Amino acid sequence: MLQGEYTHTIDSKGRLIVPAKLRESLGDKFTITRGFDGCIYAYADNEWEALKDRISKLPLNDARARSLTRFFIGGASEVEVDKQGRILVSPTLRSHAGLVKDVVSLGVGNKVEIWSLEKYNEVNAQSFENIENVAESMLEFGFTI
Prior knowledge:
Blueprint: E1 2-9, E2 15-17, H1 20-26, E3 29-34, E4 40-43, H2 45-56, H3 63-74, E5 77-80, E6 86-88, H4 91-97, E7 102-109, E8 112-116, H5 117-129, H6 131-137
Antiparallel strand pairs: 1-7, 2-6, 3-4, 3-5, 4-8, 7-8
């Protein structure tokens, strides 16, 4: 399971350090793609294949399905960790997530979220402020803590 919060920087060439604890689960090659809320998702090969399989079963005659496919599959790229523990993030994905300098990598179960520090703090300020309400609303999914 991927977990933990790590802060680091991305260099001007788009190279980003992947923390060793996250690399243990992601592997030396994995896939990154657009994520919700303005971040990037990173998936280990098995998780990425499972997501692609679920997406491939969506009906192509549905415009929402086509949009979701373009969002995740069209924006994806396979990355390889170099000897310094870095990956190269494409300009398209850097733009999607607003990655310029300070970055947060967050293990969230089956994937890693990669955020600009500024966006991460902004999103968390809003969601953590109402976390009790969020937790209560999870009852509709049958989830309790």
